């Protein structure tokens, strides 16, 4: 959609009129006790904490979508992957590893494989910033509400929120009485779930809440090699909270969580075959195309994620002031083995003898295993294993990854009382994240003459002695962020408020990268170093890596936000704001990094300047709510990846210069009666790159960024019908997402790119039956009601192996229509 380049806000009034039948997809929640008297919550209103205070959504000069637990439950939204149904600005992007799952807001997210790049969209749970977005998925339950904060939020929300933030608040302990909730669910494709929650007082000063969950689902992609589904998921975990109030005005909450997710992720069917056609056509064993749901893997996909953390939140009233402290420690672990070539051709895995006998004729298996042990940075137990392919020595060099991270964070802030001429928040923040990734990527370089031949259309011969390439790396990144921040509100009149916020940050980045290659080089064609003195064989580096580098970087920056709002009445408010966002420097800390890429590190910080103008209104005794925002944002030094800009053909991290985004977004809610609620949301955006030369001749100026649909809108409805003492609720939603470019930034200016996902719309329907006193609830739901086949994302099959150049598609859980149900009981 094209928007007036001079003034993207001129269409605000027109848009609000055209969409006056749509609505905010959020319902009321219990108001926090510290909401000021003048902010007392009325029926149908929402309380949010976008500005670190409990405030009415309708009075906050920030673009926010908020949804409470009841709405999530009625719509059968169970994981963060589905949050895009409730917000027009939020999109989820799948990947070939769970650690790479991420969000984008207003079309801006993170498009990098590197552990040295942090998200542009911050993910915050109960005030704690999560280092890796992938740790959120399948690890959350017992949610109280979700807030999607659009645009730069770093002034108050902390680490790396240059595009926005997803804020998740989980439920706290009940202090009045013991209570519990149990739920079981069943759906097609082997999905079954369970949740159990208990909460209540331990004494007059202590209360607890404990929640556990289990989830299992079979994948919808079939591996024709064994006839079994892939992308199967099994996850379970718990979250506990202990509330302690030693005296009036002093509250401490100790929280802990642990989760485990096992998945043979990610089996992605081939959508478009490789240009050569040889391997893809002969060895996928499946009909490629947009409806392909089959893979043919000879390597068993394996993967798991472990996620755990603990936090202590303290709120202390000091007279009329409130002092808040949040101390947190988190750990995350992700392991994956993948079939990188996407076929059953035997491109993955090599025995030590096969790898070394070209350079060491007559070598024995024992000697070769010793050379392999000397070569690898990671232990043999990580990089080699016994398989059916070899019965006498292990198979090594399968593509596998182990990522480990630990994070400590501390935030402390002082909030002044409200109700006077001025109120403010002062605070400090410290964040220390250590991430290590141990990675092996290997395979047959089929694009080198003599490595692979095809005697018949369905057979191939591999010269493993010269064709097998291997790289083994250990990468460690430590990111330290410390900050001071302040936010001031001035109220010259009861209707006018000026807000100014500032944050000073110091970033320090430590980068330790080691890499070795096999005797035939690595998968991106990096050169083989001259053998160190005393080395017994080419490639046996005896602990001397090809890369063995350590570097440190630091950067200081100012973030800020100013706004002015005018409340014409309690039900009508308009505001204008400007914000400066920041995302720290990044390093291409991955196995793909070349010598040139390493020398170019770090990539400069990513900054943004954003203007917003909006209004929030309610009419007809608050039966109609209309909120509309226009925005215009310029990103400088946008951190993204492109393909092969350094000549290797591998993804390369770079600063993309200018990225211009502008758009209009809104939410509208209509409540004709107490039983009927109709809601909707919309985003019309225009996101384009400025001058960006990926090579000396390829300029994608005017091209689209990745995962940035220009149009997205949704409708939601809910109707309650009393039947005797029971309540029957019918809820449904429909989400339309415009065409979207994935993976290949080089095609950003190509309107006919094969990397574009066509526009699509998905409808969901749910029927909820609630017994008297809400003791029992029986729910039935249909996902993807009209059986719209769409893909979650597109990615390139590795360019160094048999499927070189092919495009694979990640299929979502609701690629096909499916039905399910849940039964819950409150006690």
From TrEMBL:
Q: Where is the signal peptide?
A: 1-28
Q: How does it sit in the membrane?
A: Multi-pass membrane protein
Tell me where in this chain the TonB-dependent receptor-like beta-barrel domain is found. Answer: 414-785
Could you tell me where this protein is found in the cell?
A: Cell outer membrane
Origin: domain of life: Bacteria
Tell me a GO biological process for this protein.
Answer: iron ion transport
Identify the keywords attached in UniProt to this record, alphabetized.
Answer: Cell outer membrane, Ion transport, Iron, Iron transport, Membrane, Receptor, Signal, TonB box, Transmembrane, Transmembrane beta strand, Transport
Q: Which family does the record claim for this protein?
A: Belongs to the TonB-dependent receptor family.
Name the chain's protein.
TonB-dependent receptor
Organism encoding this protein: Novosphingobium flavum
């Amino acid at each position: 959609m094209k928007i007036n380049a001079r003034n993207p806000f001129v269409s605000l009034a027109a848009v609000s009129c055209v969409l006056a039948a749509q609505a905010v997809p959020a319902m009321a929640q219990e108001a926090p006790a510290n909401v000021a008297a003048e902010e007392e919550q009325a029926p149908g209103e929402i309380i949010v904490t976008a500005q670190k205070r409990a405030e009415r959504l309708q009075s906050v000069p920030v673009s926010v979508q908020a949804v409470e637990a009841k709405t999530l439950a009625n719509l059968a939204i169970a994981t963060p992957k589905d949050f895009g149904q409730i917000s027009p600005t939020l999109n989820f992007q799948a990947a070939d590893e769970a650690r790479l799952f991420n969000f984008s807001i207003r079309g801006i997210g993170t498009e990098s494989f590197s552990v040295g790049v942090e998200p542009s969209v911050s993910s915050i749970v109960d005030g704690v910033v999560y280092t890796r977005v992938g740790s959120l998925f399948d690890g959350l339950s017992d949610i109280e509400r979700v807030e999607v904060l659009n645009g730069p939020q770093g002034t108050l929300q902390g680490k790396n929120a240059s595009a926005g933030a997803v804020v998740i608040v989980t439920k706290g302990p009940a202090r009045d009485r013991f209570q519990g909730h149990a739920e079981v669910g069943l759906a097609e494709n082997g999905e079954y779930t369970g949740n159990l929650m208990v909460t209540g007082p331990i004494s007059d000063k202590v209360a607890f809440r404990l929640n556990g969950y289990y989830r299992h689902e079979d994948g919808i992609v079939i591996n024709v090699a064994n006839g079994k589904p892939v992308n199967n998921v099994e996850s379970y975990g718990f979250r506990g909270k202990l509330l302690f109030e030693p005296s009036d005005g002093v509250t401490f909450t100790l929280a802990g969580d642990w989760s485990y997710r096992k998945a043979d992720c990610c089996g992605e069917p081939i959508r478009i075959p490789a240009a050569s056609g040889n391997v893809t056509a002969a060895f996928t064993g499946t009909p490629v195309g947009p409806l392909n749901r089959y893979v043919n893997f000879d390597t068993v996909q394996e993967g798991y994620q472990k996620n755990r953390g603990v936090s202590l939140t303290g709120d202390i009233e000091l007279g009329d002031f409130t002092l808040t402290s949040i101390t947190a420690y988190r750990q995350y672990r992700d392991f994956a083995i993948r079939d990188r070539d996407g076929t059953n051709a035997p491109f993955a895995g090599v025995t030590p003898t096969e790898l070394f006998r070209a350079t060491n004729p007559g070598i024995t298996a024992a000697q070769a295993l010793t050379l392999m042990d000397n070569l690898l940075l990671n232990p043999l137990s990580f990089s080699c294993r016994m398989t059916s392919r070899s019965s006498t020595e292990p198979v090594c060099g399968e593509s596998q990854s182990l990522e480990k991270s630990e994070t400590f964070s501390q935030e402390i802030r002082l909030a002044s009382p409200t109700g006077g001429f001025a109120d403010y928040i002062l605070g400090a923040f410290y964040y220390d994240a250590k991430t290590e990734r141990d990675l092996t990527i290997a395979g047959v370089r089929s694009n080198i003459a003599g490595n692979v031949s095809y005697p018949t259309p369905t057979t191939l011969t591999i010269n493993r002695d010269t064709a097998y390439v291997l790289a083994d790396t250990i990468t460690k990144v430590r990111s330290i962020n410390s900050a001071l921040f302040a936010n001031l509100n001035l109220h010259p009149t009861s209707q006018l408020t000026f807000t100014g916020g500032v944050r000073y940050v110091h970033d320090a980045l430590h980068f330790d990268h080691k890499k070795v290659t096999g005797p035939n080089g690595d998968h991106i064609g990096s050169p083989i170093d001259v053998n160190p003195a005393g080395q017994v064989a080419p490639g046996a580096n005896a602990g001397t890596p090809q890369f063995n580098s350590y570097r440190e970087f630091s950067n200081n920056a100012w973030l800020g936000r100013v706004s002015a709002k005018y409340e014409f009445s309690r039900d009508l408010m308009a505001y204008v704001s400007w914000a400066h966002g920041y995302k720290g420097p990044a390093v291409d800390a991955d196995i793909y990094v070349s010598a040139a890429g390493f020398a170019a590190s770090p990539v400069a910080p990513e900054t943004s300047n954003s203007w917003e103008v909006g209004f929030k209104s309610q009419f007809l005794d608050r039966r109609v709510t209309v909120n509309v925002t226009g925005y215009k944002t310029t990103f400088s030094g946008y951190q993204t990846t492109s393909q092969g800009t350094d000549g290797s053909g591998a993804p390369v991290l770079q600063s993309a210069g200018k990225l211009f985004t502008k758009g209009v977004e809104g939410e509208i809610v209509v409540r004709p009666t107490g039983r009927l609620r109709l809601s909707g949301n919309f985003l019309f955006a225009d996101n384009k790159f400025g001058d960006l030369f990926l090579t000396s001749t390829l300029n994608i100026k005017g091209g689209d960024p990745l995962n940035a649909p220009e149009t997205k809108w949704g409708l939601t409805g809910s109707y309650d019908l009393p039947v005797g003492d029971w309540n029957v609720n019918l809820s449904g939603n429909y989400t339309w997402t415009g065409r979207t470019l994935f993976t290949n930034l080089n095609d950003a200016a190509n309107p006919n790119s094969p990397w574009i996902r066509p526009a699509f719309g998905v409808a969901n329907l749910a029927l909820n039956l609630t017994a008297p006193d809400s003791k029992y609830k029986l729910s039935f739901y249909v996902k993807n009601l009209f059986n719209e086949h769409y893909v979650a994302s597109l990615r390139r099959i590795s360019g160094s192996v048999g499927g070189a150049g092919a495009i694979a598609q990640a299929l979502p859980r609701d690629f096909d229509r499916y039905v399910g149900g849940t039964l819950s009981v409150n006690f």
